[in-house]
Design a protein that fits this description.
449 residues, alpha+beta, Nuclear Transport Factor 2, Chain: A, 3 domains, 23% strand, globular
Length: 449
């Protein structure tokens, strides 16, 4: 009797294990199938957008009027963005494809800059027309290679999951049609260096790939990084500090420090540039209790912190509160002009005023000696370009980067329209409306804190 019961239990256990294994296998297959379908869709979309891109560039070559050319170039910009997005959804992270992505970015930047300018006053130059012709020919080559790759993949029933596995394990098959196809595209694009996108696009790409090479000072050692951290936080000697050098894939050359304070049981993370020893960011990791100090008191804490650690004069341009932490953003102030590219963010705990975080990367990347020019139009003249229903509350002078990443001096108007608060930036040279920002409802104006 007992043996019969044991056999029955064993049978149930084996059956249950088998069913569990079967369902696990089914779920795994379903996930793999979904991933494969997503890759197939992204690859199909990439081919479609490159085909459309080639056709749309061809249409621009036959256009002459601004009414037709500007929307067409805007379409080229949109299609390059779509193609760039499609590439990002494919498992190509381990495959060198940066030349093609950079080429798409330059193509998009060129088309957008040309589309938004007044083509009646400043029509396409001969050089720009030649650029469009070169782009048309280049897009055709990319289109042909992607079509060939897609055709062979379908013919041989190739799977993108195999591509992902081959790239991840670094065991690329000798005959992987998809990988070979994308390598060919990237190699061909490398030969498109003769395309003249103009100095504006070249400068724009440099801005997007900014580094910290302009920083002043010598290259510091790990021990010097430790000393900077100790001075920065005014630490005691019992604090344990570990330092790691940024890896080869890191965006900036920096030291990553972890500081454990046995007195507070708190851990702080900090990145310091290798050149000059400038703090990039600081993060204090601890739970924050219920608020016991006001936003105004937190602001004083943030300003005391900046006065201690920054030589530049900073002015608060926004404030907010997330959970029990106050977040303040400051822009450098020069001759009463807010330099918006040079901003830092400071986070303050509302339970006791601790500095919970600091972000200074944007400031370090953009910081430079600047000459503040005379504004060509007056504040009164700038106001005439505002929406008549916009009620101005504050006016400042500012330097911003517009939508094509050009630095422009502006009048900054803070005001309300209906129940919403906005920042409106009017170009101080020509009166153009450069940018409009809607502020969050919870974000107070500068004088409310």
């Amino acid at each position: 009797m007992i043996r019969t019961i044991l056999i029955a239990l064993l049978f149930v256990a084996v059956a249950g294990t088998g069913y569990w294994g079967y369902t696990e296998h089914q779920e795994k297959n379903a996930i793999l199938l979904q991933a494969e379908n997503n890759y197939q869709r992204a690859f199909h979309d990439l081919n479609f957008h490159v085909d459309s891109l080639h056709d749309k560039i061809g249409e621009t070559l036959a256009m002459n009027s601004r009414n037709q050319l500007s929307p067409a170039l805007a379409q080229v910009w949109r299609l390059t963005s779509e193609a760039h997005n499609d590439v990002g959804q494919l498992p190509l992270a381990l495959l060198p494809f940066n030349k093609t992505e950079e080429f798409l970015a330059k193509m998009g930047e060129f088309s957008y800059r040309t589309a938004v300018r007044d083509l009646d006053k400043n029509p396409l130059s001969d050089k720009e027309y030649k650029t469009l012709k070169d782009l048309y020919a280049n897009a055709k080559e990319i289109q042909n290679e992607l079509r060939r790759t897609e055709s062979l993949a379908q013919k041989n029933n190739l799977r993108w999951m195999d591509v992902e596995m081959a790239l991840a394990t670094n065991k690329t098959q000798e005959d992987n049609t998809i990988i070979d196809g994308f390598k060919t595209v990237d190699k061909n694009v490398e030969g498109y260096s003769e395309v003249n996108f103009g100095p504006e696009v070249s400068n724009m790409m440099k801005m997007k790939n900014r580094d910290l090479s302009q920083l002043k000072g010598k290259k510091i050692t790990k021990e010097e990084a430790k000393k900077i951290a100790i001075e920065f936080f005014d630490l005691k000697k019992n604090v344990k500090i570990t330092v790691e050098k940024s890896g080869k894939d890191a965006k900036y050359d920096a030291y990553s420090l972890t500081l454990y304070n046995p007195d507070t049981k708190g851990t702080t993370y900090m990145d310091i540039t290798q050149k000059g020893g400038y703090p990039l960011y600081v993060l204090y990791d601890r739970s924050v209790g219920k608020p016991k100090i006001s936003l105004n008191d937190a602001m004083f804490q943030a300003e005391d912190f900046l006065k201690k650690h920054m030589e530049s004069k900073m002015e608060m341009v926004s404030s907010d509160q997330y959970d029990n932490i106050a977040v303040f953003t400051y822009a450098r102030l020069e001759d009463d002009v807010r330099i918006y590219p040079e901003v830092v963010t400071v986070k303050v705990a509302l339970d006791n005023g601790d500095i919970m975080g600091y972000e200074g990367t944007d400031f370090l990347l953009a910081h430079q000696d600047r000459r503040i020019p005379e504004f060509k139009i007056t504040e009164k003249e700038a106001r005439t370009n505002l929406n008549p229903k916009f009620e101005v509350k504050e006016v400042s002078r500012a330097l911003i980067r517009n939508d094509i990443n050009e630095e422009v001096f502006c009048y900054e108007f803070l005001g309300v329209l209906g129940n919403e608060t906005y920042q409106v930036f009017i170009n101080a040279e020509n009166g153009n409306e450069e940018e409009v920002k809607k502020l969050k409802e919870a974000e107070p104006s500068y004088n409310e804190i």
